[in-house]
Amino acid sequence: MTTDIIRTENISKHFGDVQAVSELSLNVRKGEIYGFLGLNGAGKTTTIRMLLGMIRPTSGTAFINGKIVSADNTELWGKVGSLVETPYAYPELTVRENLEIFRRLRFISDKKVIDNVVDKLKLNSYANRKAKNLSLGNNQRLGLAKALMHNPEILLLDEPANGLDPAGIYEIREMLSDLATNHGVTIFISSHILAEISRFSTRIGIIHEGKLVKELDTSQLEEISSKRLLINAGNIQLAYSVLVENGFNVEKTKDNHISLKDESAILKPDVIATLMGNAGCPPTLLKVEEEDLESYFFRIIGMKGGIQ
Amino acid sequence: MKSLIAALWVEILKIRKSNMWWATILFFMFVSSMMGLLMFVQIHPEISSKLGMIGNKASMLRFGEPNWQNYGTLLIQGIAGVGLVGIGFITSWIFGREFSDHTIKDILALPVSRSHIVLSKFIVIIIWALILSFVYFGSGLIIGLLIDIPGWNTEIVLKCANTYLITSVLMIFLSTPVAFIASYSRGYMLPMGFVILTLIVANFTGLVGLGPYFPWAIPGLFGTPTEIESMQLNNASYIILVFTSLLGLFGTLALWRFSDQM
């Protein structure tokens, strides 16, 4: 039996006339990494803030561990770590003092948690540096350290890769994957960096204009994403005619290649190669192109960029 | 209780590590030394002309004979204005900086309740404001002794200290509406503007005889009572002051609890 650790039931949020989130229902099971995708302003941060009790939904309810999220329900947050948008810290305090604040506010008696999380986030060289003198990347690491210091069972992360260099992004991705896979931590992570999310999420939700437009398992992505056979030939005009004569649905791409979306062509490109070879226009390029998450995302939200 | 103590510890750390702590202490010492300078000019009128504006002002104010009674009154008059601004400033900073530094979002989804965070902030405001009051009066006394104000009388000084302390406490009551405005406006510029406005309006209400009913004029009227009948404080004055304070306190608590924290 699966357990929903994070759940929303038709939550909506209006700011005056602006509908930031509209009747959004989702659920995240234990140990899942749920990638929450959307353009800037799609409603990702508003949703995370509602899940953290920072914003009251106009309607609907959010649940964490089966309990209703509300500002009064402080016991919920003992097991939750969060990072909301760009992390900020008390500028006059050092990294260690900033972490000490959160150790106190989380009632953690073991003082070693600070050293441990400083080690884990590779902040050792900056531990005694004032937060106002940190780079954006190290501020992000400090934000993650605050979210992770109490070994939470649930992580709500809003754009955690912001400001990190490629090595940092890789490192954080590996850390989060390890937390979910080996420690059963449930992770809800929002991002607009699609490639990043597709690499390690187990499930994906796409939010657009405040609405959850698609939810899928990452393993399903291959099945549901569009594919096409991309062809080039020395005599492209002849190749085009041959394929049309054989009943294929032929399209030309902008760079003067041929695109076939017929399932028979995609499944058996060797047949196409034989056909073209016999007709005197052997292919110089024959490639099955699969839609990536980015293209899929753009197709789902109805913007240009998907496989046409 | 554990929650409140944790929040209090955090607030004290933030103040201890800030430049504001020493800046406010130095500022209050500076103001009390200015009061001492005014009294010094009163004692030595022959140097008044050499001091330009300050000398003229001191002569103009004419605080009566240079003695401890008048010096105590001068210190209380000073705190009635500077205290309102000073306490308003530290309140604006303590509440407003969470918003201007964007740290508010990190302290909302924690096991510590929001009410305890707000209460801990008010507790440190009270402690900080009382320390500043002691610094002001204490340094004022030392300066008074250094410039050798004549007629030291322990009884008079203690009476002044008592009036001074109550005036300070009345001013601390008025920090809560400032906290509300800082939380509502999500910064410290608007509450600072509000503090200056209350100072101006307090003077105006004093002129038109409504001082006893305007909360921000009440501490000043308590500290330096006059013979004018319309300027006498009454029970309604204290009720208004306490009511204003409670309104600010519960308003701030409600704002942190119920409003959206973006």
Shape of chain B: globular
Just name the CATH architecture of the largest domain in chain A.
3-Layer(aba) Sandwich
CA(first)-CA(last) distance of chain B: 28 Å
Protein chain pair with the most extensive contact, residues per chain: A-B, 34 and 29 residues
Biggest β-sheet strands, sense, barrel of chain A: 6 strands, mixed
Report the strand count of chain A. 14
Describe the structure in your own words.
With about 300 residues, chain A is an alpha/beta fold. Chain A has eleven helices and 14 strands. Chain A has two domains: about 5-220, Rossmann fold; about 225-290, Alpha-Beta Plaits (2-Layer Sandwich). Chain A has helices at about 45-50, 95-105, 110-120, 135-150, 165-185, 195-200, 220-225, 235-245, 265, 270-280, 295-300, and strands at about 5-15, 20-30, 35, 60-65, 65-70, 80-85, 155-160, 185-190, 205-210, 210-215, 225-235, 250, 260, 285-290. In chain A, the strands form three sheets. Chain A has a six-stranded mixed beta sheet with strand order 6-7-8-3-9-10, sandwiched between helices. In chain A, a hairpin with a 2-residue loop joins strand 1 and strand 2 (about 20-30). With about 260 residues, chain B is mainly alpha-helical. Chain B has one domain (about 1-260). Helices cover about 75% and strands about 0% of the residues of chain B. Chain B contains ten helices and no strands. Chain B starts with a helix and ends with a helix.
